[in-house]
Design brief:
There is one protein chain. The chain has one domain: 3-Layer(aba) Sandwich (Rossmann fold), CATH 3.40.50.720. The two termini are 24 Å apart. A seven-stranded parallel sheet has the order 3-2-1-4-5-6-7, with helices on both faces. The protein has eight helices and seven strands; from the N terminus they run βαβαβαβαβααβααβ. With 257 residues, the protein is α/β, with parallel strands linked by helices. Strand 2, helix 2 and strand 3 form a beta-alpha-beta unit. Helices cover 44% and strands 13% of the residues. Helix 1 runs parallel beside helix 2. One of its GO terms (molecular function) is oxidoreductase activity, acting on the CH-OH group of donors, NAD or NADP as acceptor. This is Short-chain dehydrogenase/reductase SDR.
Length: 257
């Protein structure tokens, strides 16, 4: 399928700091497709370095900045900085930033629980709310939220109860907002990846556990970052304009819904 390129718009992407992470790979994919990029991460140096790299490699406008997605003042400050940068109109928001913790449920604290919800859920809310008016005014918008297969089947043995719960909340947010924004033409969708081949590994995994995970996947491999970014690219395109409120299972068949 050939994905048509709309007039150049800006994609706001959170969680771009990890060298081989999904956020960074998504920024590269969108820049290659002609989007201007706003890359946001708690690590501002990494975000700024990525922006320079994207402009040099793809010739697109790019802006990188530090943000704590869970902090409203931080999000609003970066929204104002983006507005002052005179980039093309925002056409997509990709909420990829997230955190987890391998702490067994009975060892969790309220502080840990709240922080995981703050980054994964409140961060998705704050960044979407900050840039949504630009998309509505521009007449084009795609909100793409990163959830997880953990939201659908639990986090297994890795102590992911807070994370699974937060990612399930992201799915609820996606469906509710999709219904509310339907009359505006703005679409809202979620991705629920399973195991993805990045440098980020769940604490406590071993080669034996990794092998068992792969064996449990009907397609016989972990997802590549390209498997995820290509779906993001499609959902942000004009061709995907009639898809909203959906949960896209990028898991090689490890979970069916």
């Amino acid at each position: 399928m050939t994905i048509s390129r709309p007039p150049q718009r800006t994609a706001v992407i959170t969680g771009v700091g990890a060298e081989r992470g999904i956020g960074r790979a998504t920024a590269h994919r969108f820049a290659r497709d002609g989007w201007a990029i706003v890359g946001l991460d708690l690590d501002g140096d990494a975000a700024e370095k990525l922006a320079a790299e994207l402009t040099e490699r793809y010739g697109v406008p790019a802006f990188g900045a530090a943000v704590d997605v869970a902090d409203e003042a931080s999000v609003l400050a970066v929204r104002d900085a983006v507005a002052a940068a005179n980039l093309p109109t925002v056409g997509a928001v990709l909420n990829i930033a997230g955190i987890t913790s391998p702490v067994p449920f009975l060892d969790t604290t309220v502080e840990l629980w709240n922080r995981i919800f703050a980054v994964n859920v409140t961060g998705t809310y704050l960044v979407t709310k900050a840039f949504l008016p630009d998309m509505i005014a521009g007449g084009y918008g795609r909100v793409l939220n990163m959830s997880s297969v953990s939201a659908q089947q639990g986090g297994g043995v890795f102590g992911k109860t807070p994370y699974s719960s937060a990612k399930a909340a992201v799915l609820g947010f996606t469906k509710a907002l999709a219904r509310e924004l339907g009359p505006t033409g703005i679409t809202v969708n979620a991705l629920t990846p399973g195991a993805v081949d990045t440098d980020i590994r769940v604490h406590g995994t071993t080669p034996e556990i990794e092998e068992a995970i792969v064996k449990s996947i009907p397609l016989g491999r972990q997802a590549s970052v390209d498997d995820v970014t290509s779906l993001f690219a499609f959902l942000a395109s004009e061709e995907a304009g009639y898809l909203t409120g959906t949960t896209q299972n990028v898991n090689g068949g490890s979970y069916f819904s």
